[in-house]
Design brief:
Distance between the termini: 40 Å
Structural class: alpha+beta
Shape: globular
Radius of gyration: 17 Å
Strand order of the largest sheet: 1-12-3-10-6-5
Helix content: 10-25%
Number of domains: 1
Order of helices and strands: EEEEHEEHHHEEEEEEHH
Number of strands: 12
Low-confidence stretches: none
Mean pLDDT: 95
Length: 244
């Protein structure tokens, strides 16, 4: 793994560590990039994206996959909205594969695996689930269950077989691996670091992440994400029209 270059002081804006099993959100301004680092090598980062100015426009995983002829996301791919625009581009990635097929963990599955202890008994060691954690964070922005859509699971890999079965790859991402989301719109990012729903680890031991935000240049006419396919070119064109 070749680490990404350090963020220079003149571009650096903000950083924050998010523990495992936690949730976080922020409006990424157009012209900024979010770098996510898998600090311990065991993170799963379930992520949703919305147009912060009009949240009814949100991440559309089926369109993103169909347009780019892929079943996972990595560098060069875009995260398209249901309005045919680009909410964010994956401009850099040292991991190579991020799951978009299997959703998030739910309370019933977590209780079946780890027991039904709540915060009163376990305090901060309480096993949180991805779905409820996203709802908590969405509520801070006036959003709720009707706004839940298919998500990205950064740093996790799930493949399929000829019969359509899902296969989770353990230890897919190593410590220090990074992915960058370049905001092409003013994009609300909502995420949590709860375990992947297919993670076979018998212990509740989610990994933490480091988030860094920095100022980035607008995508050029020959930008890798823009030029990776014709549908991306159209989506960037639609995005740029939105800001005329």
């Amino acid at each position: 793994m070749i680490p990404l270059p350090e963020i220079t002081s003149d571009r650096f804006r903000f950083q924050e560590r998010v523990p495992g099993g936690w949730n976080w959100s922020h409006v990424m301004k157009r012209g900024t990039t979010l770098r996510i680092t898998n600090v311990e090598g065991k993170a799963n980062v379930s992520t949703l994206l919305y147009n912060s100015e009009l949240p009814v426009e949100r991440l559309n995983i089926p369109d993103s996959l169909k347009a780019q002829h892929t079943a996972y996301l990595t560098a060069g791919h875009t995260c398209m909205s249901d309005h045919g625009r680009v909410l964010a581009s994956i401009s850099e990635d040292t991991c190579g594969w991020h799951d978009v097929l299997t959703g998030v963990s739910h309370r019933a599955g977590m209780e079946e695996k780890f027991g039904s202890s709540g915060y009163a008994e376990a305090s901060n060691a309480w096993p949180r689930n991805g779905y409820d954690s996203l709802l908590v964070e969405l509520g801070k922005w006036g959003l709720g269950t009707r706004d839940m859509v298919a998500n990205i699971n950064f740093f996790s890999r799930v493949s399929t077989d000829q019969e359509g079965g899902f296969h989770y790859l353990e230890n897919h991402s190593s410590a220090g691996e990074q992915v960058e989301l370049r905001a092409e719109m003013n994009t609300l990012v909502v995420l949590n670091t709860c375990p992947h729903p297919m993670d076979p680890n018998p212990d509740y031991d989610p990994g933490g992440i480091l988030l860094e935000i920095y100022s980035s240049d607008p995508p050029s006419t020959d930008d890798f994400c823009r030029c990776s396919c014709d549908q991306n070119r159209r989506a960037f064109h639609n995005t740029e029209r939105y800001f005329l």
